[in-house]
Amino acid sequence: MRTPERTLVSIPNGEFSKVQIENLAPRDKLLLRTELSLGLETSDAQLRTVLARLKEVTLKDPHVDKESARIRLVALGPLTINLEVFVYVMTRDWNEFLEIKETLYLQYLAAIESSDTRLAPPSHVHVTLVD
């Protein structure tokens, strides 16, 4: 590896397991990645509308890196239709990132609701047995 001053630095392989290697400070953007699960009752037309609206909401946000942004159908599960949101937010500030993420999530929920569909309920239930 080279330092910013172009000095060559050698690190023995055994040392990598003992230290934190990733330096978060110089990041120029932060990753927002989530899955949204829709119920299986979602029709083809509703699904296409949801995907289009999620893409529209994402791409109109000025903080989003448009070249990396993608919203895709990624899985057809036994109980859900899963969409993945993968987008870089152009900020280094964690609090600003959380604010942008919150805004996008609220807009995603509105886009889903306006498409006459909804998020799927949790696919598992925790049960506590009592004697």
Word description of this protein:
The chain is built from three helices and three strands. It has helices at residues 13-16, 44-60, 94-114; strands at residues 30-39, 70-76, 80-89. It is extended, with a radius of gyration of 20 Å. It is an alpha+beta fold and 131 residues long. The longest helix is centred in the C-terminal third of the chain and has 21 residues, at 94-114. A three-stranded antiparallel sheet has the order 1-3-2. Helix 2 (44-60) packs antiparallel against helix 3 (94-114). The termini are far apart.
Morphology call: extended
Question: SSE order, as H and E?
Answer: HEHEEH
Low-confidence region ranges = none
Average predicted confidence as pLDDT: 88
How helical, in percent, are the residues?
25-40%
Cα distance, first to last residue?
62 Å
The helix-and-strand class reads: alpha+beta
Biggest beta sheet attributes = 3 strands, antiparallel
Number of strands: 3
Radius of gyration: 20 Å
| Strand proportion | 15-25%
Q: How many H/I helices? A: 3
Task: Tell me the strand order in the biggest sheet.
Answer: 1-3-2
Please summarize what this structure is:
With 131 residues, this protein is of the alpha+beta class. The chain has helices spanning 13-16, 44-60, 94-114, and strands spanning 30-39, 70-76, 80-89. Helix 2 runs antiparallel to helix 3 (94-114).
Annotate the secondary structure layout.
Blueprint: H1 13-16, E1 30-39, H2 44-60, E2 70-76, E3 80-89, H3 94-114
Antiparallel strand pairs: 1-3, 2-3
Helix pairs in contact: 2-3
